[in-house]
Amino acid sequence: MMQRKYICEIFSGMGTTDELFEQIGFEENPLYEQIIADLLERKYSVIDGFFASEEVDLLRDSIMEKYQDHEFKKAAIGNKTNEVIEKSIRGDFILWLDEEKAGEAEKIYFDKINSLVSYLNRTCFMGILNKEFHYAVYPEGTFYKRHLDTFLNDGRRKLSMVCYLNKENWPPENGGELAIYLDKNGVEEEIAIYPLAGRIVIFESQELEHEVKIVKVPRYSITGWLKTR
Ligand SMILES: O=C(O)CCC(=O)C(=O)O
Ligand SMILES: [Fe+2]
């Protein structure tokens, strides 16, 4: 990520990103630019309303239906191919998504994510060739202890991305906030991000430790990783 400015400068003969985009006939997307600027500045980005409420409703119907049909399994630690179940670390239930078999709701999800990924690849030369996503349900009383997403396994994960599918109203008493731990000149700072409907959080998988605090009301989301291979 840090190379963006330099690469743009090299390709455009010390010009700005704007000039480069103009030369290659590329349309700048302000929302995606905001995400990139946030990631460069502080390693995470929070975008409210990334998914519209009708889109969240469709995705929530889909996750609830699949959860009720017992398609979910207890989440493990590790990645898709290297799993260990450890209840004292995380208590959520997950269902991996298969883009090839996406239903109406999941198609909406993948369309938006693919558009963002292609923008990142074209403008930041990020080389994201692979993605993995799962639905997650945190029943009441569950949590995910502080961790790094590369934990035990996967150095190819570059960006972690979480999209929340809860109902509109999520008061702080519901708990379940995502805590992100930042290093501010050697002093730790904790940021609390509540899982509001349609909100997405993107952060650098290898850099930021984070945690899901204990939830008091079932919590619904899609978590995914953008990977280099
Ligand atoms: O649901 C969240 O807010 C974060 C989930 C998470 O950290 C993970 O699944 O690795
Ligand atoms: Fe995580």
Structure keywords:
229 residues, alpha+beta, Jelly Rolls, 7-stranded antiparallel β-sheet, 4-stranded antiparallel β-sheet, 5 helices, binds 2-oxoglutaric acid, binds fe (ii) ion, iron, peptidyl-proline dioxygenase activity, Oxoglu/Fe-dep_dioxygenase_dom, dioxygenase
How would you describe the overall organization of this protein?
This protein is of the alpha+beta class. The protein has one domain (46-227): q2cbj1_9rhob like domain (Jelly Rolls, Sandwich). 28% of the residues lie in helices and 30% in strands. It contains 5 helices and 13 strands. The chain has helices spanning 4-11, 17-23, 30-42, 53-68, 104-124, and strands at 44-47, 73-74, 77-79, 82-84, 93-96, 130-138, 144-147, 157-164, 178-184, 187-193, 200-204, 209-212, 219-227. The protein has a 7-stranded antiparallel beta sheet with strand order 1-11-8-13-6-5-2. The chain is globular. It starts with a helix and ends with a strand. The structure holds 2-oxoglutaric acid (AKG) and fe (ii) ion (FE2).
